[in-house]
Amino acid sequence: MSWNWNSHGLPFLPGYTFRDVTKSAFHRPQTLGYRNGYALPRRPTVGIGQDPLLSEQLTQQEINELSFDTPDLMYGSSDQCIMEDFIPAHVALDKKVLCFYAYFQENILFSPEEECRVRPVVFYYYLEDDSMCIIEPAVENSGIPQGKRLKRQRLPKNEHGEHYHWKDLNIGMDLEVYGVTYRITQCDAFTKEFMESEGIVLNNPEQMPVDPYSKRCKNPRPSFTTRSEFDIKHQFLTLDRKVLRFFALWDDADALFGDTRPVIIHYYLVDDTVEIREVHEPNNGRDPFPILMRIKKLPKKVKPEAGSFPSCVLEVSTAEVDEYYSPKDFQMGQTMTLLGRRFLLYDCDGFTKEYYQNNYPDMEMKPTEVPKKTELPHERKKEVPVYNGFGTLEDSLQNCLSLIPKRPKKNVIKMLENDHKVLRYSARLDSQHPEDEGRRFILSYFLSNDMISIFERPARNSGFIGGKFLEKTRIPKPGSTVDSPQFYSPADFAIGATVEVFNHCFVLTDADPYVLTYLESNASQIPCQTLDSLHQKLGVGTAHNQQAEQNGDDEAEPSS
Known about the structure:
By secondary structure, the chain is an alpha+beta fold. It is built from eleven helices and 22 strands.
């Protein structure tokens, strides 16, 4: 009904009201809009059918009548309840997970050694969406696919479509999930605290039952057969993934002029096998496959009756071998003959030294010196061609390191901090020719990249054209070499010092005041002689220039 209804004295009852026949709009006003792709609510300005709102039709007296005052109580006014901010469950319970430890029994069929197997699992219950996942901890060398048994999802509780809730979980209960019965035995501290805070009393924790097959493996049955000197099963369980590594030199006498190659000998303790690998360098022209001898057991002593054994056709078995190589046969500093090749052991890694110290304390595993004629790969230095003078030293070096040169790295922080910072000095040319006596130069040192540029100041009737004398470049000190170059720095620029630039000697005569300010801020890196010369020159030079400007002397040299 419209608020514009006029009663004309009639009561507001059915049958006494009349609809406005002239009204044609009956829709509700729009209160939701979009701006830049975001939904923004807004307050309605009109009512249904574009009628004015009730708040606009009521008078102030009617509004006062509708409002009422709350009477004060005897002991004061009642406090209004403070409404707490609503926090949704996915925010309040985010990253809060309940952890339960459980197990299930798996029946083993057709096995005389075990009837069932106990497999422990972990239940993770995510409170934000009431989902669960089941993880089985992986056991090394178990032979069973382990890990995630059930991905994260809501687990069905019964056939009526209900799902498990955290209120249904407790210690000491059986949980059936997709036909598998899990027994919950324990939970973590956070789960216990959360369940108790919600009023759920947890049962006493239970012990995880011991897997009978694992227990039988730890306590093997007594055997009535004669046992070998070393248990192969014990060797596999204790020495798996433990390898002795020796660094040796192979004396390859079959080469054209004889050669010594570095190799690495691996001795696998799990099955007493040996592997030999060559140490290759890039572009050495040798076979790219580094394996010199594949993993195999090396016979040390062969029975005499097996001398005519066709070893090139059939493999040597234990029946033809009296003894194989063992760790006690590898001694530092000795030359071993393995399959007709001579190897000099000169070093080993840290694990090998520790193993020999614990098992063979009488053997000394000290590294020996390598013959000087043999140059190891890690000791070889890449030959760098002689610098030809084109470009900088860093650019020329990149041409020698890679086929496609890369741009040398620069100190970006230094360039950003010292950008547009230049130290300027006045200099004169120290030459034996008398015509060079009146030439004056400005030497600029750029702090961002340690480069120097020289500009010649034009003089009247000197006969020399002023302008750029030297482009920006790094200037090495006299006596520096290409291998260890030393370049000029602000510490070398003292007033009166001589700077040699490509066989031209320049004597510094003056400097900008900014030079003294910068060097004083870095006084720990600047010699005292340089600072003293600048203090003395700038103090005298400033007074001299001021007097020259007052007298209008054009021959006075201004500070750059």
